[in-house]
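From the thread on structure requests for the teaching lab: each student submitted one protein with a one-line request. Submission from student K.M.:

"Model Transcriptional regulator from Apilactobacillus kunkeei, tokens only."
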Amino acid sequence: MKKTKQENIFSSKTLSYFLQLAETMNYTQAAQILGITQPALTQQIKKLEKTVGAPLFYSIGKKLKLSSAGNIMLKSTKDIYEILNQTADEIEQSNSASTGDINIGVLSSIQVKVFEKFIAQLYKKNPELKVNLRMLTRKEIWESLENNRIDLAIMYLPDSSIKNWKPYEAQKIMSDDLMYIHHNEKLSGKDKIKFKDTLDRPWVTYPEDYFLDSILKTEYKDQLLDNPKSGACFSTPDQILRFAVNTGLNTALPSSFMIDKDVKTLENNNTWVARLNPNINFDLAFVYRTNKKMIPRVGSFLDEFDAFLDEEDYLSRLKDNY
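Reply posted by the TA:
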């Protein structure tokens, strides 16, 4: 049977191809993410444009842009995905609190020690409940939330990359701030160090566009200072601290990560820890689509985690070695 015009436009493959290209605005990059060849993607987009009867993209030089029809298609596609996500959530609301899967995305720069402890404890109580935890970049987390690939995100807030909070809710886990790790013996006795005094040597940093990299750059801009020169980039705090100690580069890492570190051992390696002045504060939080908490296993997970922290707070659990 010949497919209708609507079936040609709104097949899941067609929508995913269009949405990925609209996200990246780059045929090569979109094709790589989708796992297809660039000519295959081009052919699918041309087929879609022929079906709707209008071009969806146009080029200015090497830059790809959405046409008026493309913008309409993008809005409609997002509306369709929103309806599908809400439908899936409503169906899952009738499921059990102690069985099924919970998919969690964790910002890759966050220490997962406490969450691993909690998930192990939860498994002992509910072995039929499967928790899938993945380390993701900032961009991957938001794409996964929008596309309903994860139920919960564990991330830092406030995040300036979030343009529309309407579909989401957040549940605060703890407040955090940044500690400055340096090798300047003249500043070793200071508890707080001004930003202008942190530029004496290169830094080891998080990759560009990571949350902590972005808020540091914003603060240097606010202080009317150049960003520190980056000598190396790593995605996890463990990697960054080891590199800083071994190379003599400066860095800044969350207090929650530094809380269980042996300050004396660091000082013996000519490495000192202080707060920045002004201090940089942020929250660690669960972020989820509004309807997710209505799913029994997700709501139960969040309630159980609250109870877990009521027994012993987050920072204290970071210090535990079990």
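TA comment: The longest strand covers residues 168-182. Residues 1-9 have pLDDT under 50 and may be disordered.
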